[in-house]
Fold Tonoplast dicarboxylate transporter.
Amino acid sequence: MNGHHTSIPISDDSKTPLLAADDPQFHRSGSFRSTVNSIFTLKNLYVVLGPVLCAAVCSFMKLEGSSPGSRNMLGVLVWVFTWWLTEAVPMPITSMSPLFLFPLFGIAAADEVAHNYMNDVIALVLGSFILALAVEHYNIHKRLALNVTLLFCGEPLNPPLLLLGICATTFFVSMWMHNVATAVMMMPVATGILQRFPAGPSRSVAQSKFCKAVILGVTYATPIGGMSTLTGTGVNLILVGMWKSYFPDADPISFNTWSFFALPMALLIFFVFWVVLCLMYCPKGSGPALSTHLDKTQLRRELNALGPMAFAEKTVVAVFSILIFLWMTKNITDDIPGWGALFDGRAGDGTVSVMMATLLFIIPNQKQEGEKLMDWNKCKKLPWGIILLLGAGFAIADGVNKSGLADILANALNFLHKAPYLAVAPAVCLISSLITELVTSNNATTTLVIPILIQIANTMHLHPLSLIIPGAIGAQFAFMLPTATPSNVVGFSTGYIDIPDMIKIGLPLKIVGIAVVSLLMPTLGRFVFGTDKPM
């Protein structure tokens, strides 16, 4: 190899050093300088910043009623989040750091931490990803993308309408599917539309903005749609489960009851979100810049070129449809138990997700003799980074609970006792969303805040639901950081958006969401959940 020749760039720049390159003194000082420069980079500074901040927290920070375990946990959190936010170390590698930090800091045993990296939710994600890869392999996402684009394109092209079509499709899918699965399924549909635009520097400003709008649209329409039904997200199921276990004699929250309240709320937030997205990313007159790449006749020609759906495509769609049906019917209501009751609640969403994914490796694709719908080679693109990131989220949630840091956070909320409801509801929503954003998963946040909010509601003589519903919904308003929720990670990993884009849309979205919940809870919520009646 002659790689060493490339180490000295040949430049005709007037600033080229006059000292001869073979001068030994130049080599000595140059190599020393380059070594120093390579050590003192901003990235390396961030690498060191994590452990330094962790040491500072562990040594000097005094938390009221804290044990060394909770202080160490806070230090580890600071370390991990410093690395995540600065990307000093690749995100998947940072996500593995709890595997060595927790045992070394005495937070949890190695086995306990490792358990968090493979649980039912991660099984759900794995199965969903394998199905999503099958959808991608057979170009089903391309079909859906072309159909959605044709339906909402408008004549002439209307970018806000097309954006609404993509976001509304995601919203609808998310009502029936887990948020992660929705994001994984809809993101290839979105990128399928965006691949029509030129890449790199040849992409115009209008095209670049529209690309960002589509990815942000899918990323955030996913959690907004998920809020509207009980099966849309784990948080709603946790809320219903905890309500039942804390108040067994009270009326349970059924699928329909929840939707009466949550669907109007989600639609209101969705509408404002679409308007904000259009104002920021679809400037007037952006239609012509986009229409050259989204010509209706060309789209129809491409759809025809795909031909009719073959056996393989139909089977993958059928498997996916059966999976959605199984997710929706696992637990229906208390009066009508789902199929989950047959297995005494042992089967989870991940169980069916992996089971249906396994079918793809058994059913023949009828294209070539002996070939199945999927093989392991096609699964090489599984996004392990997201799976590790999820595992880290669960490990941190577990560590926060076990170390006693959760109790310290609970005591910090005691100041809410004397405040009026219209001040408390937004505060509860905001605190929940910030905990999800910065500390742990939305499921873990819900599990953490509901018991505290029930205590606060008792102290304030309020109906518990008037606080725990804003708390649980607030936990889903994590719109500002890529690490906050798996759907944010999926959107961020496409490479079309960066953190400032997420904050620019996420902050107004968070404010609107909190305002909508705080206003609907004492009005529509009182009517739907009967929060004006005594418990």
Residues 1-21 have pLDDT under 50 and may be disordered. Residues 120-529 form one domain.
